[in-house]
UniProtKB/TrEMBL annotation:
Topology of the protein relative to the lipid bilayer: Multi-pass membrane protein
Residue spans crossing the bilayer: 31-51, 63-80, 92-110, 122-143, 149-171, 191-211, 231-250, 257-275, 281-305, 317-339, 345-364
Compartments where located: Cell membrane
Record-given protein name: MFS transporter
GO MF term list: transmembrane transporter activity
Keyword Disulfide bond in record: no
Biological classification of the source: Bacteria, Bacillati, Actinomycetota, Actinomycetes, Kitasatosporales
GO cellular component: plasma membrane
The entry's keywords: Cell membrane, Membrane, Transmembrane, Transmembrane helix
Species for this entry: Streptomyces inusitatus
Residues in Major facilitator superfamily (MFS) profile domain copies: 1-367
Pfam families: MFS_1 (PF07690)
Length: 377
């Protein structure tokens, strides 16, 4: 599960580390190249809920293999494409299967373990995504400098094919849900606590995506164009610490950890906005950002699972949709800021989005971010 999350998120976010190279090779602007992240997210938005509902009765391993194979096809086309339009189409296909995977992974992981281990199981399954951010995206950025960005997507295809073999050999299969157990989408959304979690997901990820997708253009005016990979590596390595903390404490301090994540990220945007001319403080901001973001996936998936109960699979699909709306919106809004204002505004826009995220967590006292142990009801 962790390896699947690694490949899925790395496929989605890799362009963030190689926007200059992609834009030059494909003959488009950096803001246009950034839409390769946006269209991936749009594919996930459109697919996560309907595909999750349509395939909820499928055997889980069969569905997992089909989705992973879709990623292999998308990455292969991206690596070989000479056309920006074809590249966007391949990225859209990747988003469709990626959205299905994100909705599938958490539920799959918790079915493998006892109820009291579910939070840790989700943390482990999501750890691959953080490794993708901490090591994969900076490595892809470095590879794009040394060789060519297309090789990074080619390597992803090879890794995906190896993952298919590994899943067949090692991952247990589980049946899908019987028809009578399925809950309607509107019912799931109205469950107390689900809506606040989705709001926090949307605003938090939107703020993250605005900065992450356009980190190269943000750093260039600061004289740090050659340090994109090291800034991302700082962010990612601290993210690994964050996901360990979240996995260890999520059952006892879910609400507190989510409040801290929002507050730390807001502090990061202030550092980047006020002290962007000081490289040391830029790295400090990246570290705070990683500490805030790394465990967020575990926190939000645990929170929505706590709130949704038996509607967990549909709730995870809603969470996946909100997450990818944030990624797509970040690509669009960040591109507009970059084109119409100045890269320095990216951090301030992100800060404005974190205010409602923090308010939603603080006001959701009874539902949404409870302390109850997952699976206890």
């Amino acid at each position: 599960m962790a390896a699947t999350g690694f490949i899925t998120l790395l496929t989605e976010t890799m362009p963030a580390g190689m926007l200059p190279e992609m834009s030059r090779d494909l003959g488009v602007s950096e803001s246009a190249a950034g839409q390769s992240v946006t269209v991936f997210a749009i594919g996930a938005i459109l697919a996560a809920i309907p595909l999750t509902k349509a395939t909820i009765g499928w055997p889980r391993r069969h569905l997992l293999l089909v989705a992973i194979a879709g990623l292999a096809i998308a990455n292969t086309i991206t690596a070989l494409s000479e056309s920006f339009a074809l590249t966007l189409a391949a990225r859209f296909l990747g988003g469709i299967v990626g959205g299905l995977l994100w909705a599938l992974l958490a539920g799959y992981a918790v079915r493998m373990v006892l109820p009291h281990q579910r939070g840790k199981a989700m943390a482990i399954a999501m750890a691959g995504a953080i490794v993708a951010l901490s090591v994969g995206v900076p490595a892809a950025a470095l590879l794009a400098k040394l060789v060519e960005w297309r090789y990074a997507f080619g390597i992803m295809t090879v890794l995906t094919l190896a993952l298919i073999v590994w899943v067949i050999a090692a991952v247990p299969s589980f049946p899908g849900q019987p028809k009578g157990s399925r809950l309607p989408l509107t019912h799931t959304f109205r469950i107390p606590g689900v809506a606040p979690v989705l709001l926090v997901t949307l605003t938090f990820v939107l703020a993250h995506s605005i900065l992450y997708t356009y980190i190269a253009p943000f750093l260039t005016p600061l004289g740090m164009a050659g340090q994109v990979d090291t800034v991302l590596l700082t962010f990612g390595l601290v993210s690994l610490v964050s996901i360990w903390i979240a996995g260890a404490l999520v059952h006892r301090h879910l609400r507190l950890l989510t409040i801290l994540a929002c507050a730390l990220f807001a502090t990061c945007t202030l550092l980047l906005g006020i002290f962007s001319g000081v490289p040391t403080l830029v790295y400090a901001g990246a570290a705070l950002w990683g500490l805030a973001f790394g465990g967020t996936s575990t926190l939000l998936q645990t929170a929505v699972a706590e709130a949704a109960g038996d509607a967990g699979d549909v709730a995870q699909a809603l969470l996946t949709t909100g997450w990818n709306v944030g990624i797509a919106g970040g690509g669009i809004i960040g591109g507009l800021v970059l084109s119409g204002l100045d890269a320095a505004w990216l951090s301030w826009v992100a800060l404005a989005l974190l205010v409602p995220a923090l308010a939603a967590v603080l006001t959701a006292r009874e539902h949404g971010f409870t302390k109850g142990e997952l699976g206890s009801r």
